[in-house]
Amino acid sequence: MDKRSDLPGFYAKNLQERRDLVAAFASLTDEERALFSTPHLDPELMIENSLGAFPLPFGIATNFRINGRDYLIPLVIEEPSVVAAASHGAKLARPTGFRADADRPVLKSMVQLVGVPDLQRAVAAVRDQKPALLSACHEPSMAARGGGVFDLEPRIIETGRGPMLIVDIFCDCVDAMGANLVNTAAEKLAPLLEELTGGSRRLMIVSNLADRRLARAEATWSRELLGDDLIEGILDAQAFAEADPYRCATQNKGTMNGIDAVCIATGNDFRALEAGAHAYAARDGHYRSLTAYEKTPDGDLRGRIKLPLAVGIVGGSTKTNRLVQVALKILGVRSGRELAGVMAAVGLAQNFAALRAQVAEGIQKGHMKLHAKNLAVAAGAQGEEIPRVAARLAADGTVTASHAAAILRQIRQTAEARHK
Ligand code: MEV
Is beta strand 148-159 parallel, antiparallel or unpaired with respect to 99-102? Predict the structure, then answer.
């Protein structure tokens, strides 16, 4: 039977019960499950001058159905409401689910050449020698997996320090994010390019504007579930973002809340994704939303997302952080490309849910609910006391630590009096 990601009441279960459900969904071993409560990485293997590791919450977004398959989505993020919002956006889209796909995993690096005596001749020479240059960076192990450097192209750019020759190097990274692969290729080619063009190489580095590696997703939220007012409100919110960069930055930030959280859980480089996403959003000189919404002829709301997502399931910290392996197992993705499609769907769900919440009730209500729960715990509430204190805090509208302590005292006094 197909596994289902709509786990009823998941949010209300305790930690152990949630772990049980996810372990069963993803067939986690006891050892893998234990990684949620034991150290799972050796910081000394990862960065310099380390003092230790810095944990972040690891949550699960439920309800995702993408290309006809159910996924539980691991999200690593410090911000309350993101996991709940993604799950809610996916729940409302669940009747039809998301459709998602991603381009061939192409990443490019660039060699910058300055002081080239004859730029036009250099361009012609690079084109002429393309087969030899490509074979110089042939990597048998990548080729065996169907990848590797497959193209390069010279171009002249005008800069504040005069014209320069840039050679773009294109690599199919298969299941890796690929920055190391393309940087290695650029460093290998740079001396050959210097010889060929008479210029001097400066930078030899990946481009994080991975616009040949776009991921897309779409979903339809029914009019029946949302109602006309909400749909109109979301379309107005979208128009605001399209017209105004001050709003658009926040809208895209919300979309990236979900994408970054999967990115971190899967050991990928969220700074690379952020750089690529925002550069792509501004590709035509006007900063745009990564998502788009329209009303279908039936009056439903259709949402779409398109952005570069250079992510992998091998390499990077996918090996050094053992919880990354667990996250990938929970996701059950079989390729970097599938992961990119899933992330696009999560970004769309996240953005939809943020717009829905703001149009319907404002974002603070959800934040405050969790904040109230945190204050209740901080005041010393235990078990059943936690939701009671949190509910009273929210109802009183005074969500402060001192009020949480006062409510807790009151609840305990009443309970004591009853037992006498
Ligand atoms: C908060 O992290 C994200 C939102 O501000 C996104 C948005 O405004 O659309 C809620």
Answer: unpaired
Question: Ligand 1 mean position to 252 CA, how many Å?
Answer: 8
Q: Tell me: do 82 and 224 sit in the same domain.
A: yes
- Asked if 142 and 237 sit in the same domain, the reply is no
**235 class by beta-carbon count within 10 Å (0-12 exposed, 13-18 middle, 19+ buried):** middle
209 close to 276: Cβ distance less than 8 angstroms: yes
Is the domain of 199 the same as that of 83? no
Pocket test for ligand 1, best of 78, 363, 368 (most atoms within 8 A of CB): 363
The residues assigned a catalytic role are 79, 253, 269, 367
Domain boundary among the residues 323, 342, 360 is at 360
Query: Of the residues 79, 234, 248, 251, which should be mutated to test ligand 1's pocket, given the most ligand atoms within 8 Å of the CB?
Result: 251
Q: Domain range holding 394?
A: 366-419
**What pTM does this model have?**
0.89
My answer on whether 241 and 321 are in the same domain is yes
pLDDT, tens digit only, all 420 positions of the chain: 579 999 999 998 999 999 999 999 999 999 999 999 887 788 998 999 999 999 999 999 999 999 999 999 999 999 999 999 999 999 999 999 999 999 999 999 999 999 999 999 999 999 999 999 999 999 999 999 999 999 999 999 999 999 999 999 999 999 999 999 999 999 999 999 999 999 999 999 999 999 999 999 999 999 999 999 999 999 999 999 999 999 999 999 999 999 999 999 999 999 999 999 999 999 999 999 999 999 999 999 999 999 999 999 998 777 888 999 999 999 999 999 999 999 999 999 999 999 999 999 865 566 677 778 888 988 999 888 988 998 898 888 888 889 999 999 999 998 888 877
- Structure tokens given for 109: 């690096």
342 with 277, same domain: the answer is yes
The string of DSSP letters for 202-255 reads EEEEE-S--TTSEEEEEEEE-HHHH-HHHHHHHHHHHHHHHH-HHHHHHHHHHH
| Ligand 1 binding pocket includes 87 (Cβ within 6 Å) | no
The DSSP bridge partners found for residue 167 are: 111, 154
